[in-house]
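Box 3.1 A note on notation
Throughout this textbook, protein chains are presented in two layers. The first layer is the amino acid sequence; the second is a token string describing backbone geometry. Keep the layers aligned when reading.
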Amino acid sequence: MLFRSTRRYDAGGNVHWLFGGALVATARFSHSELQHEHTFGEILEHDRHELSFAEVAIRGTVGPNTWVAGVAGQRDAYRPHDVPRFAYTYTAPGVFLQDDIAVTPWLSVSASGRLDMHNVYGTRFSPRIAALLRHGAWTSRWSAGQGFFAPTALTEETEAAGLTRLVMPRPLTAERGRSATIDLTRTAGALTVTGTIFASNIDHPVYVDRATAYRIINLIPPRKNRGTEVLATWRKLPVSATFSYSYVRASEVDPGGGRRDVPLTPRHNLGVVGTWEKEGKARIGVELYYTGEQRLENNPYRDTSRPYLIVGAMGERTINKHWKLFLNMENLSNVDRKSTRLNS
């Protein structure tokens, strides 16, 4: 894909009102337009994206409760001049309510719900509940909820290959997502460690089939994501360090039967960042990021990519109160991410 021209227009604003110190009302709005002229080989496509949003909300506190209620509306429109069959206009007015309750000094609970009246996919309810628990140096958060997404023909695959050749055998179904997360944090002096486990399902995920034909469809079995993450931070001036590791098992249905990994989603990711700082004088940092194997789709050379390590460094030096010198060096390991997906 080659962009020949891009034009973007944005506008927005917000207003706040205070009533007697107990109630706060807010109103905000935004509108944006994005016009593209891009080529896919010898094919030229023109399109325009429009997105408008408005919200009015009121927030108050009653005893242990902090609540928010409001109304909102969104309009999302797409105008592909050369392939009008993929044009759409989505409008979704809605109402929402959230209540945060400090039940005890060690437990806070939050519950929220949103009701959207979508002009194409009907009325949808999106609830969420969360809890925060504290005990000494321990903190834990629990949350679960669900939502929906109005599908379009615009995906990572179609944005790279265009819409002219794309086939949509039947109208797309709205995607519905359900998720749950639990994390546990422990602080001991300069060290803070957080462990997280998470899971989510996406029902009727949109899928671009490029193996047999260039078509966009919904997969019936859900796309599943399961994983865990560990984040550790150590801070003791003038040195700080951060370590992160995540394991993600993202799977989707294989049209040939069974399940397979979602492409370009590595199971293992690891990162280490270290900095030294002399306040007001200088700062030096080093970062390392490891990405494990990931499944490749429609690649004639290999089914999985090679793992790779990216190394970076940065420096900052204060010259005087008017001048600072910055140095940022990325990918010192000289990794070509595309080459990791091909045979040598």
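The helical segments are 156-161. The first strand starts at residue 2 and ends at 19.
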